[in-house]
Write the structure tokens for this entry.
Amino acid sequence: MAPGLYQITFGFYAKKLPVVRVYVNSEMIFCIQSGGKDVGKENSGGLNKNVITSVGKHSAGNISGLTLNEFVALPARARISLCYEGDAIGEGFFSLRKL
């Protein structure tokens, strides 16, 4: 409800490299995917230093994933939504915290 600075944190763990889009009031604020590309910021050259590039499978299974810790300035009564594209079978978390 209150405007201000917020911390968005999420992580998704699945066999297929996921794509995650975050929206504020139905407008996308960023889109991020594993593999070294930020698909939401074409004008930045397509590279995003916050993205994990997979180096292959681990003998213990799926132990790393796509994670993000981002800070945003939200307007009053902002609606946050998240769109995940990836494996139907996987694990994940999402956190939103007012600073």
